Design the sequence.
């Protein structure tokens, strides 16, 4: 079930809110768990079993690890917990990748398993891993109530595409959380704005990218517009989903951490990854990079650690070489900045942003290229190799057709609008005006988006594929 769908907005969500509101306190997590299972089973009923087995294993390992903490048995149990969680992820997400590459290297013809990827498995696997590791470290107590732990893992607002919510962040909220009209209003506002990002902006860029792929009259400018469009599509698609998840969390009394912080205004690739998909970056830092030794080791070992983390970051996104190359591309960029470039970037006030945007746009062309042929074709197009014209009539047509969306997205990817609203809100008259206009504007926005959904002009979330 998609957040951006009529069944979710007008049937599922109202029913869940009603049941949650009338349920006594001790049953609220049960309501959320059952609703989350229905939400997940809506599209993939058989894979609910996989998720429930993963949750059960996480629950049992958590209790056992805490029981034997400080002994060799706890370390063995942690190893078994990590292995079992990763086994599901590797089997469903990466088995065919390994088989295909084994066939390519050996010349054999081992048949592919052709297993469908359970939606959200990358996210809930990482949540279970962080939970058992934190129990082992003593950062959190093992959850004794299986309903609470299952509700944490399966919580439908963030189940499918994050953000990656750590158990330690919402441990207390699972048993003690408050609800208020102000918090609910904040949640509704955040959800509607996230839905707007998805339907009105990300989906428009999805249409542009489809037009680009179908066109036989490309130009250098068209390739760069495609790079911009895809980068903005994935940003508004994923940040929009995160906004909706955070908004729904607030409605149900949870405070999820932010996942994006205007990454396109960054002055370095290092800063970009502190602002983009922050929950994933912090997860790899705390559960892979630091355990490997981080930067507290020799110089060469530190470089090796960075390459490992970014190779895994890329591979986490999908079972394809382009994702691995994408991760290693950022590893190289970050190493160059760490070893040499970062001090110079801090002094450059304009060129550093041009540098970041150029590399990020190129990186997402790499990210979107599903095979080597497409990647090479896109690189040749970006740099005008092969006699492509710089501009063409179809390019100008699509630029005029999507100009408004590009302008809105470029402005919306910066904190300009936020700063203007804060400035207005500081004035008593401005605050009253915003309080009056905001609910009307949000209702109108929801009505417009409902029209789009009824018309069927929307696309699935990009991160569902990863």
Sequence:
């Amino acid at each position: 079930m998609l957040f951006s769908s009529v069944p979710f907005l007008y049937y599922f969500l109202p029913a869940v809110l009603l049941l949650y509101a009338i349920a006594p306190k001790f049953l609220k997590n049960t309501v959320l768990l059952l609703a989350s299972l229905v939400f997940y089973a809506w599209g993939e009923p058989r894979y609910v079993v996989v998720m429930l087995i993963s949750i059960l294993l996480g629950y049992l390992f958590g209790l056992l690890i805490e029981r034997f903490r400080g002994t060799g048995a706890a370390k063995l149990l942690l190893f078994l917990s990590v292995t079992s969680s990763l086994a599901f992820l590797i089997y469903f997400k990466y088995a065919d990748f390994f088989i295909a590459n084994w066939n390519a290297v050996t010349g054999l013809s081992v048949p592919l398993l052709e297993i469908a990827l359970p939606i959200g498995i990358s996210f809930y696997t990482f949540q279970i891993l962080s939970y058992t590791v934190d129990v082992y470290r003593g950062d959190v107590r093992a959850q004794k109530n299986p309903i609470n732990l299952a509700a944490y893992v399966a919580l439908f607002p963030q189940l499918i595409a994050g953000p990656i919510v750590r158990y330690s962040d919402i441990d207390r909220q699972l048993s003690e959380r408050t609800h208020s009209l102000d918090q609910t209003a904040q949640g509704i506002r955040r959800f509607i704005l996230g839905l707007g990002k998805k339907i009105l902006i990300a989906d428009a860029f999805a249409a542009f990218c489809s037009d680009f792929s179908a066109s036989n009259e490309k130009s250098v400018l068209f390739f760069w517009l495609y790079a911009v469009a895809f980068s903005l599509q994935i940003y508004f698609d994923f940040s929009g989903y995160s906004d909706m998840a955070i908004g729904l969390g607030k409605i149900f009394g949870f405070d999820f951490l932010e996942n994006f912080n205007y990454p396109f205004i960054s002055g370095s690739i290092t800063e970009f990854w502190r602002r983009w998909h922050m929950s994933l970056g912090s997860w790899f830092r705390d559960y892979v990079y630091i355990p490997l030794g981080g930067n507290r080791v020799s110089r060469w070992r530190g470089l090796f650690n960075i390459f490992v983390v970014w190779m895994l970051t890329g591979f986490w996104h999908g079972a394809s070489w382009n994702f691995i190359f994408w991760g290693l591309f950022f590893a190289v960029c970050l190493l160059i900045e760490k070893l040499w470039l970062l001090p110079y970037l801090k002094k450059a006030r304009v060129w550093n942003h041009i540098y970041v945007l150029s590399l990020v746009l190129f990186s997402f062309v790499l990210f979107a290229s599903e095979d080597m042929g497409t990647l090479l074709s896109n690189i040749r197009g970006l740099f005008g190799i092969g006699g492509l014209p710089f501009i063409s009539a179809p390019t100008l047509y699509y630029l005029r057709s999507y100009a408004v969306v590009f302008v809105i997205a470029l402005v919306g990817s910066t904190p300009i609008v936020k700063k203007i609203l804060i400035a207005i809100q500081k004035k008593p008259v401005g605050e009253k005006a915003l309080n009056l206009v905001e609910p009307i504007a949000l209702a109108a926005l929801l009505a417009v988006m409902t029209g789009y959904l009824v018309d069927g002009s929307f696309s699935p979330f990009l991160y569902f594929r990863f």
